[in-house]
Amino acid sequence: MSNDLRLTIAEIIKRPLFQHAQVVAGHRGLSRPVRWVHVLETADTGQFLNGGELILSTGLGFGEEKEKRLAYLTELIRRKAVGLCIELGRYIPSIPEDMLELANHHQLPLLVFHQPVRFVDITQDLHEYLIHAQMQALRNLEAYSRSLQQLSLQAAGIPKLLQHFQVAVQTQVFYYAPDGSTQFAPVVPHDVAVEMSDLMRSHFSELDSSEAGVRFLSLSATRQLAYQPVMAMGHVLAYVGIVLYERSPDEYLLLTLDNTVSAMAQILMRKMFVEEQALATENRLFDDLIANRSIPEEQMRSLLGITGSGKASAYHMILLSFEKPKNLAEDSLPPHDLTAIFRSLLARHRFRPFIRCMGHRFYFLLIEQQPLADSRRTLEKAFRDVKRIMTQMLGTDVQIWMGVSRTGKRLSDAGRHLAEAEQALAFFQESSSPFFADLGLFRLLFHVPSEPVLKTFISDYLGPLLAHDQAHGSSLVHTLRVYLDVNLSKQEAAEKLFIHRQTLYHRLEKIEEILGEDYMATQNRICLEIALRAREWLRKEEQHQ
After folding, report:
1. Which parts of the sequence belong to the Purine catabolism PurC-like domain (predicted)?
2. Do the beta carbons of residue 133 and residue 6 sit within 8 Å?
3. CB-based contacts of 27, cutoff 8 Å, min separation 6
4. Of the candidates 298, 410, 283, the residue with the CA atom closest to the CA atom of residue 354
5. Cis omega before residue 334 (within 30°)?
6. Are 144 and 172 in contact (CB under 8 A)?
7. 375, 316 in Cβ contact below 8 A?
8. Do the beta carbons of residue 85 and residue 109 sit within 8 Å?
9. Phi and psi for 279 in degrees, rounded to 5?
10. What φ, ψ does residue 351 adopt, rounded to 5°?
């Protein structure tokens, strides 16, 4: 299937109607493709050009006046016309040197007819060719799309699809995966492959991974890359592109690239989901950790496929909880379908990820593939990408909370670190940090049994206030919580509670009456802070049980 249906100026001058035409300037632009033919006599009508036109003129609008002819030619260049044909005669008997210099400088082919020609015959001849070429391109594109569907049904791999793409466009094509692996069709020499791979690795690593669509990378004055990301659920899986030599991409090339990218996205997604189906062992592992069942070190290594007796790499347990928008469609993407995307994303951040989705929660065990200089910063960056994808797929109104454990060393302690992530998640809003290490004093609650010690502690310090709120329908406990959160600032507390300061004074007087006038003494205040947060934590724990 021939895809190069462009009509260049070099091909046009071979047609019968141009047998007496002469190229007098801009020879280096003869390879430019012509999109349409237009008769244009004055610079004032240049606004009707869209770019890519071959212009026909008798010189009527500019003649031999230097200022007018240079303004005319400059306007054609600015409007991205690809060539100018002038019929020499009454209005312009010869092409002045200044026009030749300007056309050569901008590589704009300038053709002259030394005898009268019928512009209507030229436009009819070239328009018929261009329309036929466009129709043929559409037929070729439709045939290519059908062949892609057949390859997808045959479960063809990326190499076969890439070869099929190359046959369709008849130029060098490539496939680049974010892990650094690159495939070329046809195969290029080893040194060229290494050079191109290094160039792509440097360029693609700096791109905004959330932007789709075709992009271009100039390699030299005569060579450029046209490429497009293969995306799934807002995540870049790979890049597919074309190497163009002395050629700009036409619609056929770009549409063929787009169809190929869509087919590759389906193949990669199907492969990822098949891999997810095979992770039953991983799910059982998380089930045991969530159920707080102890797993010996050797058994953990075996379940995770870690061989050898060497020291295990550092790891992190992360718990992500989310609440989907209420207006989300019933047939929207199931959350567990995101695990394949998350796995690919986290692997790119140099983690070996193990993931489990249960309800509105994701459980992550991330093993560092190599020691990270700043694991916290890497985790923050990785989960910004996770949140971005969840927002794209579930809507901007999705609410997301996270809890991150301390760095683990022994895999047999993974259950304990998961509990740390659980506590960090419970206190996420209070601490404004998802990291267990940032909980400060509230980390102690992790080691206090909720029954009976913690509940008794809460009752001792908050019991009278809780009883008063229940009996009178008041909100003294919440008032105390806000008052402590703003470090005893009455003005800020009143604003956060949306009440007048005088109302706040009455509430604080009532709290003092119930708890005693020394309730703000340092020791009592600390105990009240702990009791308030412990109460909220226990309430969240009970909701998840």
Report:
1. 11-130
2. yes
3. 109
4. 283
5. no
6. no
7. yes
8. no
9. -105, 35
10. -110, 150
Two tokens, residue 19: 């047998």
State pTM to two decimals.
0.50
| DSSP-based three-state secondary structure for 320 | strand
The three-state secondary structure class of 253 is helix
φ, ψ (nearest 5 deg) of residue 55: -100, 135
- Phi, psi of 209, deg, nearest 5: -75, 0
Instruction: List alpha helices for 95-240, DSSP H.
Output: 97-105, 119-153, 158-169, 190-204
Handedness of CA 485, 487, 489, 490 (dihedral sign): positive
- Among residues 17, 87, 99, the alpha carbon closest in space to that of 55 is found at 87
Contact 401, 321 (CB under 8 A): yes
Taking the C-alpha atoms of residue 183 and residue 194, their distance in angstroms, rounded to an integer, is: 11
**Cβ–Cβ under 8 Å, residues 482 and 494:** no
Q: 366, 353 in Cβ contact below 8 A?
A: yes
Q: Are residues 20 and 270 in contact, defined by beta-carbon separation less than 8 angstroms? A: no
> Which residues does residue 239 pair with via DSSP β-bridges, in sequence order?
176, 229
CA–CA dist 255, 141 (Å, integer)? 8
Edge to edge, what strands does the sheet with 215-218 contain?
A: 182-185, 173-176, 235-245, 223-232, 215-218
Rounded CA-CA distance 333/284 in Å is 24
Instruction: Give the DSSP letter of residue 209.
Output: T
Q: How far separated are the first and last CA of the chain, in Å rounded?
A: 63
Length of the chain: 545
